[in-house]
Amino acid sequence: MPHILFTAIPAWGHIRPFCILAARLAKENEALTFTLLLPANTMKKAEDEVSSELRENAEVKKRIRIFTCAKASSANPFEAMRDFVAAYPTIYEAIVQGTPVTCAESGTVFDGLDPPEVVIADFFAAQQFTSMKGISGDKIPIFNFITGHAASNIRMFGPEVLGGSGNLSAKMEAMSERLGIPIEAPGEKLYRATLGTSGTIVKLPGVPEMYDYEFYPQILPFEGPLSLVLKGAYEFLKACDGLIAVNAHCWEEDAINALKFWFADWDKKAYAIGPLLPESLGLLEQSPRGADDIKVFLETVQAKRGKGSVLLISFGTTFWPSDPTYLEEIVEALMEKDFPFILCHASPFAKVSDALVNKVKQSGIGLLTKWCPQQYILDHPATGWFLTHCGNNSVTEALGSGVPMIAWPFEADQPATAYQLTSMNLAIELLEVRVGEHAVKPLRRNGKAAKGTREAVGAEIRSVIDLCRGERGIAMKENAEKMKEEMKKAWSVDGPARKEVNAFLSSYTSLDVSGAVTKDSCWVKSYFKK
């Protein structure tokens, strides 16, 4: 039976798209099985996502195995990877040998399967990639699964001719020697110095010009070996057998074409199969997943104020503003302007004061939560706006539901995403919320720097609220609805995502696009049974 293995780091935005892909392909191809070998602290979410996508289809769910090789060790994503990576080679060898495996977290024993025909690994899973290559060599192709904004990934890892860094690994090693900073040292200084913060103009496919320092608009709430992680990601991209990108052609076409050009230069294939959204989106009500308080809040606000009246505020599962007063000012402006909102503070670095909690409760128009079913909220008719960090998963969910955005980017692919969406009139970017040494430098787009005060943040958000309620807001909502319709077409019979995933399956598995097995599905079994 054809078998695909997926593995990742503990980043939910990287895992969720594959859960949707696995469920969709397993439903369509009854001969296909999936193994999702994940860090323990993401397993429950993955199981819930697959179950939600499959609804009550228990038979299909049996062909999607989800387990881990190490118990949950920490909420910190860098620490959580340590034990997982250490245990990974043993369980991977068992998987390719077709012997039973035991989930280290639940104790569930899974029967052995034929070896995977192809492995798909998160682009930050460089350590797993090294382990797998040491065990299965070139017998099993390993594809890089890239989940961020396509143009930003070119910026980080792509060729200089496309606006990229070139050989990031070599440049980072040279910068490490020059600055005397070990690559494994925690913090941002080394990789920022490598990519540049001097004011060089960066032009990426599909994104208006930016200065290089504009990619770092915030002080991060965490420290980790970021340079080491990025160096590993570049080396994995260079050594993998090909690329699967979750980007959507309808708004990232230029960058997708550039990705394909880049990988063709490396003699590799790149497939863009996004957006990966729930198949039922727009057809069936999304599940609130036990968040009854959120469901009641949305229904109550809609009954009183009508459709599109709620703002969702969420910075994902990791990021959080380093200056809590800026967020407090925004919340106070929303209460002052009588703008209903849901504020999700899921990040382990989130800090919400008791004073703010009490103010929101007394206002009667806000709801605070440590976890939210984001797709459910965005697809609910009461929701009209999304204040987001512009992580790729969040942006895809918003556009898939026709919801325009207010952008508060932090790092990685978020700043370029925010600017591109703003240039397409799908978002309004908050500029006064920028903090740190680069906030006082002028932006390429307007020559202005952040004033660095809470008062400036307050003035900006009040202006943005007025824009959202005026003609600009109407135009943004119309644009978001158009993008929603384009995203719906991506997985139709002739849609770009459908064509690309079919091409991948035909080339790297024993399936044809109708789900039939076209060749020996255990073509590597004899090698591993020697």
Question: Could you provide a short overview of the structure?
Answer:
By secondary structure, the protein is α/β, with parallel strands linked by helices.
Descriptive account of the structure:
It is a single chain. 45% of the residues lie in helices and 14% in strands. With 530 residues, it is an alpha/beta fold. The chain has 3 domains: 3-147 and 492-528, Rossmann fold, CATH 3.40.50; 151-226, no CATH class; 292-487, Rossmann fold (3-Layer(aba) Sandwich). The strands form 4 sheets. It has a 7-stranded parallel sheet, sandwiched between helices. Strand 4 and strand 5 form a beta hairpin. It is globular, with a radius of gyration of 23 Å. The two termini are 20 Å apart.
Average pLDDT for all residues: 92
Strand content is: 5-15%
Helix vs. strand class? alpha/beta
Unreliable stretches (pLDDT < 50, length at least 5) are: none
Estimate the global geometry from the Cα principal axes: globular
- CA(first)-CA(last) distance: 20 Å
* CATH fold name of the largest domain: Rossmann fold
- Number of individual domains: 3
CATH class of the largest domain: Alpha Beta
Largest beta-sheet details: 7 strands, parallel
Q: Rg, please?
A: 23 Å
Q: Please give the oligomerization state of what you see.
A: single chain
Q: What is the CATH superfamily classification of the largest domain?
A: Glycogen Phosphorylase B
Strand order of the largest sheet: 3-2-1-6-7-10-11
Total E-strand runs: 17
Helix percent band: 40-55%
